[in-house]
Design a protein that fits this description.
The chain has about 190 residues and is an alpha/beta fold. It contains 3 helices and 9 strands; from the N terminus they run βαβαβββαββββ. The protein has helices at about 15-35, 50-55, 110-120; strands at about 10-15, 40-45, 65-75, 85-90, 100-105, 125-135, 150, 160, 175-180. α1 packs across α2. The protein binds inosinic acid and magnesium ion. Inosinic acid (IMP) binds next to β5, α3 and β8.
């Protein structure tokens, strides 16, 4: 679908800019406490996790590095995760012996995160944990341990704050719900 003014299909603002700011600050504080005295390697999943990553980093008071990975799921479309993910861009850094924290935008069926954890585990990090901004727990098909969760959300298609609709709208400062009667994401 061609780019349209988002107000045309915004059903509701699910998480406001204020709520995001407060929660991201809380997560940053908690993570800093949990890893006190350690250093951390944040592994950001492209592209949805970027906005969350950059805000979260500003609230970390411990030494940390960042690296990026891009994944794509095999199968019908980005929403129909099939259980196998392909690494389309791998990390630059060696995570062996590091405290690794995966930073992701949303966990839905859990397939993406489950395969990512499996891959990274084989590289023998010191610790491996997950921080996701959003959790659609009711959609889970495989069990994954999420160590830090920003918000538990209902099963609604969301966009903004890093999450895209056909690659646009990642810049919006809030998380909004798509009115699927007005806008049909091409991969939904
Ligand atoms: P999972 O493998 O089913 O957990 O899928 C996770 C991926 O699906 C996320 O990284 C997103 O790219 C995508 N996704 C799931 N729900 C949404 C949504 O509501 N809006 C945008 N992307 C979504
Ligand atoms: Mg993602």
């Amino acid at each position: 679908m061609a780019y349209q003014e988002y107000k045309k299909f915004l059903a509701e603002v699910l998480v406001t800019e204020e709520q995001l700011k407060t929660r991201v600050a809380e997560l940053g504080k908690k993570i800093s406490e949990d890893y006190a005295g350690e250093s951390l390697l944040l592994v950001c999943v492209l592209r949805g996790g970027v906005m969350f990553l950059t805000d979260l980093m500003r609230h970390l008071t411990i030494p940390h590095m960042v690296d990026f990975m891009a994944l794509s799921s095999y199968g019908v479309g980005a929403r129909q995760s099939t259980g196998t993910v392909r690494i389309t861009m791998d990390l630059n850094m060696d995570i062996y012996g590091q405290n690794v924290l995966i930073v992701e935008d949303i966990v839905d069926s859990g397939h993406t995160m489950a395969s990512l954890l499996e891959v990274l585990e084989t590289r023998q990090p010191k610790t491996l944990k997950v921080c996701t901004l959003l959790d659609k727990a009711t959609r889970r098909e495989v069990d994954v341990q999420l160590d830090y969760v920003g918000f538990n959300i209902e099963d609604k298609f969301v966009f903004g704050y890093g999450l895209d609709l056909d690659e646009y709208y990642r810049d919006l400062p809030f998380v909004g719900v798509v009115d699927l009667n007005v806008y049909s994401p091409s991969d939904a």
